[in-house]
Amino acid sequence: MNKMLKKDTFNYPGLDIPYELKEIRGKNVSITVYPNNRVVVRHPRRVSKSFLQNFMEERKTWVWDQYKKNKANNPQKTNFKNGEILPIFGQNRKIKWFEEKESKLIDTEIIFSNKGFRSQKGKENKAKSFLKQILLEEITPIVDKTASKLNTKKYTVKVRTMKSLWGSCSPDNDLTFNLGLVHCPDFVIKYVVIHEVSHTKEHNHSNKFWEIVNKLDPEYVKAEKWIKTNGPKMLCYLN
């Protein structure tokens, strides 16, 4: 296969920004510029190098405009260093590292324990583990309560970092939530959880599905509006 078509990172033609190539099963070529300025060019396997180059050249101005807009309006990825500001459950908190036994939230600060960790990568992994822990503690009671109301008896819950989705529900009722929810206010977390658990009864977005959501969370539109306005920024901190 031509090197140009491998799943790898390159510099965008004519722009000093990286992009990724991803093979897909579909027939169309597309370009996505994520809020954190991750640029992904998706293409079917059987596409020529010249076609891709022309396609990208034609969209260079659009990509650059999106890149500049994101850089000006969206936060940078968190490095988990002392003094950085990180929103937790809708409240800005200052990151501090101490030789504490356990990480914890205190007023306007998030205290990360660096006990046993010295490398930056190790500290980042420990910080994300703590964020995952507090998010699971927040969402699990909502999941269980909602599942009980819907008489959903079999389901699993996990949290992981995702690029764009806030949550998902598999056909087997495996519920997955974006770690980025840890940055969102309570009413948004509640809505996303209710939305996904409602899919255990309706694996679609039919009128019946939205009737279930509305019954469980009558103010869900407020959360959707918040996500539309603020969601892209929240997804930048950990991606």
TrEMBL record:
Residues 27-229 form the YgjP-like metallopeptidase domain. InterPro entries: UTP_pyrophosphatase-like, YgjP-like_metallopeptidase. CDD domains: M48_yhfN_like. It comes from the Bacteria. It holds the Pfam family YgjP-like. Gene3D superfamilies: Metalloproteases ('zincins'), catalytic domain. PANTHER family: UNCHARACTERIZED PROTEIN YGJP (PTHR30399), UTP PYROPHOSPHATASE (PTHR30399:SF1). This is YgjP-like metallopeptidase domain-containing protein. It comes from Leptospira kobayashii. The lineage of its organism: Bacteria, Pseudomonadati, Spirochaetota, Spirochaetia, Leptospirales.
